[in-house]
């Protein structure tokens, strides 16, 4: 399985709202990400659903400077 396919599979979450955001992001942005952004995206997908949703929805600020640009992209889709 390719790395992009693995990331697509990992985007299947337990929260409908998160599924919707991640599926839109995959459809429009995933193949445009560079290697560093792909690593950051994989790291974000390791977060528990509620924590990831808090970041994406803006309920909690992202404190990791490496992840901030990607969180901003997720928020804009």
Keywords:
mainly alpha; 5 helices; 65% helix; 77 residues; DNA polymerase, domain 1
Structure write-up:
By secondary structure, this protein is mainly α. The protein has a single domain, classed as Flavinator of succinate dehydrogenase (DNA polymerase, domain 1, Orthogonal Bundle). Helix content is 65%, strand content 0%. The N and C termini lie far apart (26 Å). The relative contact order is 0.17. The mean pLDDT is 93.
**Backbone CA Rg:** 11 Å
On the 0-100 scale, what is the average pLDDT?
93
Care to count the β-strands? Answer: 0
Count of DSSP helices?
A: 5
Helix and strand element order: HHHHH
Largest sheet: none
In brief:
With 77 residues, the chain is mainly α. It is built from five helices and no strands.
Write the layout of secondary structure elements.
Elements lengths: L2 H8 L5 H13 L6 H11 L3 H9 L10 H9 L1
């Amino acid at each position: 399985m390719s790395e992009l396919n693995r990331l697509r599979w990992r985007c299947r979450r337990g929260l409908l709202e998160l599924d919707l955001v991640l599926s839109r992001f995959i459809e429009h942005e995933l193949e445009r990400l560079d290697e560093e952004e792909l690593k950051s995206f994989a790291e974000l997908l390791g977060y528990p659903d509620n924590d990831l949703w808090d970041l994406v929805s803006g309920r909690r600020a992202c404190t990791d400077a490496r992840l901030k640009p990607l969180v901003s992209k997720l928020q804009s889709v």
